[in-house]
Each structure stands twice: as C-alpha cells, then as structure tokens.
Automatic annotation (TrEMBL), chain A:
Domain of life: Eukaryota
Compartments in which it is found: Plastid, Chloroplast
Protein's name according to its UniProt entry: Phosphoribulokinase
GO molecular function: ATP binding; phosphoribulokinase activity; protein homodimerization activity
GO BP: reductive pentose-phosphate cycle
Keywords linked to the UniProt accession: ATP-binding, Calvin cycle, Chloroplast, Disulfide bond, Kinase, Nucleotide-binding, Photosynthesis, Plastid, Transferase, Transit peptide
EC annotation from Swiss-Prot or TrEMBL: 2.7.1.19
Matching Pfam families: PRK
Keyword Cell cycle attributed: no
Main location: plastid
Catalysed reaction, written as an equation: D-ribulose 5-phosphate + ATP = D-ribulose 1,5-bisphosphate + ADP + H(+)
Domain Phosphoribulokinase/uridine kinase, first and last residues per copy: 61-259
This protein's encoding gene: LOC100282845
Entry's family note: Belongs to the phosphoribulokinase family.
UniProtKB/TrEMBL annotation, chain B:
Record protein name field: CP12-1
Residue numbers spanned by region Disordered: 54-77, 107-130
Keyword Disulfide bond carried by entry: yes
Lineage: Eukaryota, Viridiplantae, Streptophyta, Embryophyta, Tracheophyta
Pfam families, alphabetized: CP12
InterPro entries given in the database record: CP12-like (IPR039314), CP12_dom (IPR003823)
Disulphide-bonded residues: 86-96, 130-139
SMART domains: CP12 (SM01093)
Keywords annotated in UniProt: Disulfide bond
Domain CP12: residue ranges: 71-144
Originating organism: Zea mays (Maize)
Amino acid sequence: MAICSAHTTTSLRSPCTTVSNAGLRQKQVIFVTSNRRSGGGRRHGGARSFQVSCSVDKPVVIGLAADSGCGKSTFMRRLTSVFGGAAEPPKGGNPDSNTLISDTTTVICLDDYHSLDRNGRKEKGVTALDPRANNFDLMYEQVKAIKEGQAVEKPIYNHVTGLLDPPELIAPPKIFVIEGLHPMFDERVRDLLDFSIYLDISDEVKFAWKIQRDMAERGHSLESIKASIEARKPDFDAFIDPQKQYADAVIEVLPTQLIPDDNEGKVLRVKLIMKEGVKNFNPVYLFDEGSTISWVPCGRKLTCSYPGIKFSYGPDTYFGNEVSVLEMDGQFDRLDELIYVESHLSNLSTKFYGEVTQQMLKHADFPGSNNGTGLFQTIIGLKIRDLYEQIVAERAGVPAEAAKV
Amino acid sequence: MAASTVASLSVPVTTTTFAAAAAAGGADVLIVVPRRAGAGRVWFPAAARRGGGSGRLVAVRSSGPATPPEISDKVSESIKQAEETCADDQKGDAECAAAWDEVEELSATASHARDSLKETNANDPLEKYCKDNPDSEECRIYDN
C-alpha cells in the first residue's frame, strides 16, 4: 500500500519527497487528498511546513552477492545513478559507516552483521565467508523490519579497526539494497528479496583484478595475492558460490575468447544470465526473443578496433532453471559502437532511446565502462527501476506502465 | 525528450573518454608503478607469471592517492602474520585461511580508502579547474 494513494505515481522521480522533518517517522500515515490534476503548485498543501512522504511504506528489497573486491561498489554506484541522484554515506554519522544513501535508495553492507569481529575470527580460525562469523538472525529480523516499513538500529562493522561500532539508524527507503557476501545464504533473508543479483567473477579475472588493486600496496606481492585467493577459496566455494543458483540475474565475468591464450585480463567476456518467469522482470533479448543468436556487430556498418566485439544470445538452463543468456565479448572503443549495440537490444526498460549509452558515458571513469560488465550492470539497474515501478503501481492498484523501449 | 538526449549524449563523448577509462579502470594492469617507492617499476618475477603465455607487460597508472598510512601499515602487518601463521605447523588450515581473509579484508578497505580520497580530490576546486585546463601553470605536474 502506498502512503498517499492519491498520487498513484509510478515514477521514481515522483513529486513526493522523502520526509526530511526530524519529528516525522515514515511509519506515520499521512493522508494526502490533493490531486495532481487539480493543478496549482501547492502539492504539499496545508499550513504545516513539513513535507509529505510519498514513498511506499514497504521498500522493494534487492540483494547483491559477490566476493570481496569483485566490483560490488561500482555496481552500486551505477545502480543508484540509474535511479537518479548520487549515493552518499549518512550525513553526520560514523565516518566509517558502510551505508550509502540516495534520494530513493539505501545500500547496506552485510559485513555489518558480522557476529565475530576481526579478533574473534582470528581466535576461532574462521573467515568472514563462514556463516559462523555472521549473525543471520539479526540480519533477517532487520531486513524484515525495513521491508515492513520500520526503521532499525543496524550495527556497523568498522573495516579499518575490525571492530563493531555503535549502531546507526536506518530508515526504510524506497529501494533497499543489501550487498555483501551472503544476501542469499539464509533462506529467510532470501525470501525477503524482490530481486537478487550475483556477480560471478572467474578465478582468472579475480586474480587480474586483485593484482591491479593490490600490487602497489606495500607488503603485497604476486605471491601474497595468489595465497590470499587460494586460502579463501574453500570457504568461498562452500558458502558464497552456491548462492548463485538463487539469483534472478547472474553477471559472469570471464577471460576473452577473442584473443587466443589471453591472460592479461584486459579484454573480458561477460555473460548476463537472466532467470525466466521472475515476476516483474522481463529478460533483455537480442533480435528475436528465445532464438539462439551469434552477432558480430563489427563489419561494413560499424568499424571496430582489435579484437572486436562479439555478442551471443539464447535460451539455456542454469541450475535447473530456465534462463536467457546474453553475452558480450570484447570492448567498446567508440561511442557509435555502444549506440549501435544498444539499438539492437530489446526489452531494455529504458525511458528514452540512448539511455543505456548515456548512463555508460556518465560514468566512463568507472571500471568496466567500456565492456560487458558496465553494460550489463547498467541494464540490471534499468531492470530494477522497472521492477520497482511495477511493484509500486501494483500496490497502488493501477496497471504498470509498459516499458517504452 | 529526444533532443535533450542527443544533446547530453554528445557532450562528454570523445574517443579519448573511453581510452582513458580503459586505462584508469579496466583490469588491464600487470605492472604497476609503486605509489610510495618513487620512480622504479616493479617487474613481475618471471616464475610468477601465469600460464607461460604471451605475458605481455604493460606499465600503466603512476598517480592516484596513496593508501592512508594507518590502513597501509595494517595491510603489510597482516600479510606478514598470514605468512607466519601458514608456515607454523602448530596452526591448521583454518587459521591460515582466516589470516589470509584478514589480508583480503584490509586490502579491500585500503582500496576503498583510496577511492574515497580520489573522490574527495575530484571535488577539489583546483582539481576541477585542472581537469579542464591541464596546461595552465598551476596545473602542471613535474616528474622528479
């Protein structure tokens, strides 16, 4: 149920603003009787000076799973950008807070639910990947409370000190994202998710990324980077990797096949695996929905530089589920390549022609903006916006507006 | 709507945008110039190169904020501890894994700290000005 059903707006950029008045909690129900069509600028009419919250009282909850250092934060920045507005840490709070807040979205990091701090894990010989280092009861209770529209006092795991800091207040947003190692591990938490994503980075690429991230760090060497990945792998395989079977969308990042024996990790082959039959989620397709297609856009119309770009699309099964898989190998070097590709994809849930390209260019400085990781993260962002709008429309009792493109 | 789209698309786009993004952000670095140690480049030990394949070496990225010392010290300390823990016969695989997991956690924290410094720097008025006027006197960067 939306708080102010009079608006029944399905737009994320709705005229309604989030409550900013300190004394007003989201749980309070305020009936707004003004009607948009009655015109006039007095949308927030009445003598009182507070602004009326028009957000739905039950946030849409999204789960994002990936290993540490595998691009969750870049994905989150792309996602919040699609929703409009930049995501920032809570103002005036703990400077080491892991939370990001934008107008529409709050992203929390599930490390905050560590039950063992850094010392505790060391004493017990338990990694952060191990469920024993995490408090799933509290995670479940708090995600459930947020989903029901209640604010929670969430703990803060301080990544610098390795200690649990005093909690921070999290108010229910429109879109609530839980990102971390275990968003789909606990069945109770999993069932609260309206949509879930798993970032699946192949060992080769993980190694290349971590070299790039850590080599300049004092004390690190190729051996230490390798040792860290290898030592964590058993727990990763046991507790993190199996979550991908539950994901509605999986972004798989692999080495390219365009360059034989490539081990540079520079050019990537990225797969977007989309589960069929997920409510409010219609997979993207290339040319003809449900067919199997291999497409090299580079040719007479489009000139690409080495090693070129190759797309594939088709139906498949993934952990026994029916899925559609879209794959991109190679990278974009010029704008016209990106636009050309966008114009050949369907079901993108864009609001105008060129929106994918626009989003990619807006964040050209983010990692992966010239390859499939950036493209598919942007597409998933648009899909989540669409899903959100459909859910809101559904709650408000009006049929969802179909995607325009 | 269409007009504004086209306008906004055409503004920030140049061929170099993508090239720069690829250099700054892609997973394209095998050889990194150390931020602290000054001029020298770090070359991979040949034995550590993977697969024995082409092994083409690329040198990129020399600038960017350094990790705050408090975190940097923790990273190097944790690596030392992990190496010791795993070499110790008295300690098991679990302790070894937990020790390397701490290294990963601190390395990720260091990376996030550098990213937020980069963001802070990007909001600096001088940095903003220099982005548009890289050749002006106050924006020149000299190698030592």
